[in-house]
Amino acid sequence: MAARIQEKYENEGIAQLMQKFKLRSKMEAPRIEKIVINMGVGRAQEDIKILESAMADLATITGQKPVITRAKKAVANFKLRKGVPVGCKVTLRKTKMYDFLDRLVNVTLPRIRDFRGVSPSAFDKQGNYTLGITEQAIFPEINIDKVKHVQGMDIVIVIKAKSKEQSKEMLRFLGMPFRS
Hints:
The protein has a 5-stranded antiparallel beta sheet. The relative contact order is 0.22. Helix 1 (about 5-20) packs across helix 4 (about 165-175). It has a domain at about 5-35 and about 90-175: Ribosomal protein L5 (50s Ribosomal Protein L5, Chain: A, 2-Layer Sandwich), CATH 3.30.1440. About 30% of the residues lie in helices and about 20% in strands. The radius of gyration is 18 Å and the shape is globular. The chain is α+β, with helices and mostly antiparallel strands and about 180 residues long. The model has no long low-confidence stretch (mean pLDDT about 85).
């Protein structure tokens, strides 16, 4: 079963984007390839339970089991050794990706206190969008009473597009509330 935001994009969005950017084929239209949610848990070296708690929260939010990320190299200033667990991440694709994006845009972001929109300038050169969230408690799936450690996360929306403008217009069509 396709997500409602996916159906909206396929039925109306592609045609609008093709018209706006004068594209010749549906395959030229920008599309989301995947969404990667990453939680960096620097305190995991001292207490592994913090990482386990973050993994449980991430699994609850995304509906998918997270993968542990490990340090690629040793950094003496951070007392970090190579191979030590430093966080967890989930890569969402297809229907789960669209379901997550739908919940993020329509339920989660409006729950942030004093929310005025997300930054319109967080696109990289390829047109991917990165969104930083300061605490996992804004997600309705998380029980605030059971949160022991407030944990932030990065959400990267990987978009296949020819330009930042195409990526931004596609996300705007999907309901991403950009600051004006």
